[in-house]
């Protein structure tokens, strides 16, 4: 998901917070000459397709999917880049702004050297909760990867780094930004599609927040290794700066109003989004903020940041021209359903039969452009 590459309202505030946040102690941080300016050295990223830069492209279940074909990647990379976007993702802008290397997609690396400059564990289609737990609630998933799997992969990297240079391990963790991109939108989407009930989806909120908390703090047995081993959560492994993304306005994603049409009172008059689904997103964000506040008290000396991506998206949907978009912000730019949302669940941007979203002339920052769209073919915002 490439959130607004031109104006970047979602990524810029997070980047600014990171640049002024409490930095790692001098013993761990890299310095910039005589000025003693501390800088981050790498990014470790977790999440789903909103953060994935190449894992789903090689993961057997998803390899060769639509996002590996044009028009994905066309506006920045000039070719499919392993991202479910035509451009860059928030994590790409963070890397650029922090002046650190692109993190290696975990499934494309092998040795400690591959991961020393940062690692991206995110996988398109991943959920926060384990598929088995979701199945016990009657919720069907499509990609057998959850946040706990990504945490296990992180432990693999930690062990590789320790085995190659144990003395550097704590410094590497402390001088890194840990970015937990949005990870639970798939849990809610699958719950809505499986049960057609926002109440069932809302019942997942405490479980999802618990899963994120565990990924940040909990040490638990590592079943792939010896009984005495454990999976090191991010903070336990030495992370000192962690940014956690909140939930998107779910009711503004094209598939939701297309699949769950309602009456006039079901829509937010300012955006046209489905209000009850956005209420679910706000419930999630409230619980996530509360959990992070608790962790700040429990872990002094760590910087735990809530990254708001809800308000920037709502703002762009409500005033698309202000961000350089056309005047149909809820329509998928290359879906296949036509109508106000141009959505078809089986039609992605790279599949035959995809249709451009309708548009009418509208000003785009004085350029007169009408080609920039806010939504791609399923549930990803783009530009």
TrEMBL record:
* Annotated region (Disordered), positions in chain: 356-383
Q: Which parts pass through the membrane?
A: none
Keyword Zinc in record: no
Query: What InterPro entries does the annotation carry?
Result: GDSL (IPR001087), SGNH_hydro_sf (IPR036514)
Q: Which GO terms describe its molecular function?
A: hydrolase activity, acting on ester bonds
Which Gene3D superfamilies does the UniProt record give? SGNH hydrolase (3.40.50.1110)
Compositionally skewed regions (Low complexity) per UniProt: 360-383
Q: Which family does it belong to?
A: Belongs to the 'GDSL' lipolytic enzyme family.
- List the PANTHER family: OS10G0393700 PROTEIN, ZINC FINGER FYVE DOMAIN CONTAINING PROTEIN
Stated name of the protein: GDSL esterase/lipase
Write down the species: Paspalum vaginatum (seashore paspalum)
From which lineage does this chain's organism come?
Answer: Eukaryota, Viridiplantae, Streptophyta, Embryophyta, Tracheophyta
